[in-house]
Amino acid sequence: MGRGISTRCLHLEETETKIEHYGALSYPIYQTATYAHAGVRQSTGYDYSRLQNPTREQLEKVVASLEGGIDAIALSSGMASISLLMEIFKPGDHLIVESDLYGGSMRLFDSVSNKNGLTFSYANCYKEDISQYITPNTKAIYIETPTNPMMNVVDIEKIAKIAKENSLLLIVDNTFLSPYFQNPLKLGADVVIHSGTKFLGGHNDTLAGFIITNREEIRDKLRFLIKTTGAGLSPFDSWLILRGIKTLGVRMEQAQKNALAIANWLKEQEIVAKVIYPGLPEHPGYHIIQKQARGFGAMITFNVDTKAHALAILEKVKMIKYAESLGGLKH
Ligand SMILES: Cc1ncc(COP(=O)(O)O)c(C=O)c1O
291 and 190 in one domain? Predict the structure, then answer.
């Protein structure tokens, strides 16, 4: 495992397992829903693709390895991952959640998980003492860092310490930095979430999500849940994400270079009131992100002076698309 992260992104696919598929450099797509058995009570280990599929497993091995987890589960979207993860909790359980999160995650917590009996306290995890929100029913802390959309940097080790002291799980959505720049499990988190739709896939053409853990009991619960609820990633989409990951390193480096140049350019513009990018020394999380990550990522938030200017920018952007999502080649 001494190889550099960029090399691992490119070569894990063929080096983590012994590939025998006629020497194919690209892992085959096992486009099958089911598998024939040689006889009664005989299985090749593959019974039905909701449970096992070689292409999806190959992707899961690569992602688990990049994040330093014992297992990764590949799902049909980032939201499918977060939804599945909520199933490990039971009615009455309480979670402390970062208050600046991807809006879809909040919608899930407030309108679906809540209905199922989970309760949530929203906290500014980057600056508040979150211990004040812990109750006897608290089971987990859920953060993103940097946060979407305000780019707050949360100190993962600090939050992990509070989680450990109080026997809580720490869940980190690592979508914005990707495993190329940040590995929360190595900083004390128990579970990592990804929208694979973003930097991992990287081409705006595939929805995907991941849950990665280094805890055996969580792995066992999640494996039971994915088999039972069924939102596993399709073989073809697994292959597309495997292909995306091969260039994760070069894409992340270039996107970060572009982001820094754009952030500095934005700072010079008269109508721009504030630029929030953790790679700028004036960002309050500049030193924390350097301590816990290998880069600053490529997401920038900025404020302009008037609503009219904001609308004009959205109408006039050409190469940058006025579109949802992030992390693709064309954004
Ligand atoms: C930080 C973050 N987490 C999760 C998601 C949800 O992922 P998906 O759109 O793949 O369901 C997104 C989507 O934008 C996101 O930005």
Answer: no
